[in-house]
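To illustrate this point, what follows is a protein record of this kind.

___
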Amino acid sequence: MKYKTTADIEPLKEMLGQAKAIEAMEFGLKIDDVGYNLYISGETGTGRTSYVLKKLKEYTKNKVKQKDWCYVYNFEEPREPIALDFEIGQGKLFKKDMEKFIDDLYIELQRAFESEEFEMEKNKILDEYEIKKEIYIKKMKEYGDERGFKLKNTKYGMVFVPKDEETDTTSEEFVKLKREMENITIKVISKIKELEVIAKENLLELEEKIGIYIIQPHIEDLMKEYGENYKIKKYLAHLSDDLLENMYIFYLDEEELKNINEKEYLMKYKVNLFIDNIVNSNVDKAPAVVELNPTYLNLFGKAEYESINGTIKTDFSKLVPGAFHKANGGYLILYVDQILRNPHCWDMLKICLQTKKIKIETLTGLKPEAIPIDIKIILIGSQYLYNVLYMYDEEFNKYFKVMVDFDNEMDRDNENEIGVAKFISSYCNDNNLKHLTYDAVQVVLKYSSRLVESNKKLSTRFNKISEILIESNLFAKIRNSEFVDDIDVKKAVHEKWNRVNKIEKKIDRMYESNQLLISVDKEKVGVINGLSVLNMGEYSFGRPVVISVTTSPGNKGIINIEREAKLSGKIHDKGVLILSGYLLENFSKEKPVSITANICFEQSYSGVDGDSASGAELYALLSSLSEVPLKQNIAVTGSINQKGDVQVVGGVTQKIEGFYSICKQKGLNGKQGVIIPKYNLENLVLRDEVQDSIDKGEFHIYPVTRIEEAMEILTNKSFSEIYDKIIKRLNKFYEISR
């Protein structure tokens, strides 16, 4: 498909290059089972998160089963707040209705108890009490008066004393009479107290009657509105009983209120609107929550605290929801590496899935009722973490049965190339960038292939493509160009590398000043130019490394100097050991191989790892044994097996470019080149300068599949001739060693 610019192309609408992941995602989202949660695997930048969010927008529209939740006071167990569920929007209305109910009670109860009717009824009860009390006191006075006693009030109560002060209070008759009067006093006072109790009971009945008259209609209205839910109905019944018992709090005067903690006392009539789907914009769709900071409290909720006189306190009104509560009835997206960093979060997550409930833990003994959950969890992480969890957590596969694996590459075919162009079109439209010309898109495609080190593949890490688009747009602006052209994209790529290639340039200067010794012409025995890749984070580059081998009679075998100096990694050690296997396979049919060989990476002062130099090490070893010199104008990469096959390696593009750079610095002579594994050819995505030099015959690529092919290229001799020389030398070594 030919086009002038990406402005002529329809923007990309679907996910590109992830057919397998899309199919798995659809499968996982359609199964509504506690064990079919999803694990999204793939490299950062493959679009996994953005695709998940986009896909969830489709699924949340067809799934509305979340509820509003409120926490209320538990009148039976005050330390165990009750969780009430409501239909969407009803939670907010319930809270509002309860607040209005309590506010109305203040007004209506105060009005009722300050009314003339209440005062009349109250006074009637009190007057009746006072009348009966006076009758008892009057009779008691008359009784005492007849017997020569008068009734007197003291600080200890009412007592009878003699009228005549000269009365003999010691006489037996007086003592007997006084005891009789005291008994009468006790009986009368007891009767008066009974009257007082009856009066108080009548007053309470009057107050309760008024309270029922005022409170009950409100409760009945709430019952009609919310009473279909048994738990709400039960709560309202307990609320009514408590209000009737404690309604005096609503009409105490300011002086009386000072003696009680009004704020704490009235707190139990509040409603904590815990989850409000209207506020969270989840009215017509299921919630989809992304928790970027999955601490324990952020995930599973918490209770806020306040310090009162040095004591930490909390209550049900201070309960705050976590991501699990907010995503209840929908989807919760978490990043695996982050949740594993937070203590106890992973274990609690599995407990919630197992029990299908979530409970808030507090520090003060408050035990809020657990809330049932219906949630699908989507974990986003690397393939490595998936493997670790699968291997070491027995419950992981029980709850995360669906693996959605986003690939970092896709085939470079016409369909996907057009797809990348469509992506560029949509990205430019969405971000107000200049559109790219056809030639500019071709440069982007080459850069994409380079990211995955294959000329037959394209990268699906579109964040890296986006970076180039943004930076190319800048250079097009500088040129005052209407569109981004190929020179802008090339400039962006070059500058991107140029910003981070400080170490590469320093190494180049060391080669130029001969601080690092290397020869790119002539021939040497037992010396070869191997190729290595240095990784500097996002940027990697290749440079040659001189490998030398010395051989002599002996029985120590092949000595890896890097290993002896503790600079060799395990894979490099394995590669060197394979050399021994190759020698035994090919040169010990009749006699044992009796040699001592030292292999060294010259001027290498840091660690060496990987097996990509094993081929170069073997060529240098065979050269040393046969005393046939190797061309220094040809560098080598490729690992080998014990049978002599040359195997693919990584970073082959950077390795070729690295040797080309040194050859250019020392002077290209048309004979320089690199031997690579044949099956690495599809991994070559070379810079234009290097590719042009190859096309002109100034630099060469030699693909090989066998050791014999490489040795013939390096020596211009047949391998049979080299083989004969090695056999003769080994026989000599054997005789000397014996």
